[in-house]
Design goal:
0% helix; seven-stranded antiparallel β-sheet; single chain; mainly beta; six-stranded antiparallel β-sheet
Length: 254
């Protein structure tokens, strides 16, 4: 969206390639459990493609080393990927980054940049800010942790990209999600078929599941791109205005 340039991509259509797996669990191929299909093409990576992940097995899917470009001004580097996940209690998936120290020829400890520990039955876009690592050599890690006593179908990853660009603010969602970020799924952008059944203006809006009820026990945030606010002046005001429709059950809120 808005002139983002793709610096790196991997869709797993050629298999694992130059990525690595730490002692099993992660597989690359055609899924026959969980999502039952890749986000794009026929292949994806997943924590056991044909069933539940094993108990008490922590495993990482790691990228080849990637040297990130530098940025200027308001430019950002972002990791974008499509994922589907279903985790049992006490289990989770983590996005991690390790940085190469050229002076000592060593890799840093893995740093967690995002996590998912629940279930959502649709492929959804993950978006992680990597701007702090601009100009550095990094490895990306998709770290799966299973602590038992129960297992589920786990985490499936597809269509990974690192992109560079300047985020642009747009608030009508007519061009899709744009540069907005969803941190824990639930939020979708498009034409609603449940709730209000229509939008305030145009044909698209953002909603907590456009075609039905939001899932239980899953908190999610829809995050705007950066916005530089004008100076209000001595008698001026800067206001946020938006149109919304809502229906919340007991103990739930926006």
């Amino acid at each position: 969206a808005h002139g983002w340039v793709t610096l790196y991509s991997n869709d797993f259509e050629a298999g694992l390639g130059d990525w690595s797996i730490s002692a099993g669990v992660w597989e690359v191929g055609v899924p026959t459990a969980g999502t039952n299909s890749a986000d794009g093409g026929s292949n994806c990576a997943g924590t056991v493609l044909g069933g539940n992940y094993p108990s008490d097995a922590d495993r990482r899917l790691s990228s080849t080393p990637i040297t990130l470009q530098t940025v200027t001004g308001s430019e950002e580097l972002r990791l974008r990927f499509w994922h589907w996940f279903s985790y049992s209690s006490y289990d989770a998936g983590y996005i991690q980054v390790s940085v190469y120290d050229s002076a000592n020829a060593t890799w840093s400890d893995w740093v967690t940049k995002g996590s998912w520990d629940d279930s959502f039955g649709e492929w959804t876009l993950g978006d992680i800010d990597l701007t702090e690592y601009a100009g550095k050599k990094v490895k990306l890690g998709f770290y799966h942790i299973a602590n038992g006593p129960y297992e589920s179908t786990g985490w499936y990853i597809d269509d990974i990209e690192i992109v560079k660009g300047t985020p642009v603010f747009s608030g009508d969602f007519e061009s899709g999600q744009g540069d907005w970020i969803v941190d824990k799924v639930v939020w979708e952008v498009g034409a609603p078929t449940a709730g209000p059944g229509s939008v305030h203006g145009g044909s698209s809006c953002a909603g907590t599941v456009l075609g039905g009820n939001y899932p239980a026990s899953l908190d999610s945030r829809l995050i705007s791109p950066p916005v530089t606010l004008p100076v209000a002046g001595p008698d001026g005001e800067v206001q946020l205005r938006f149109w919304h429709w809502f229906s919340y059950s007991s103990y739930d809120a926006g």
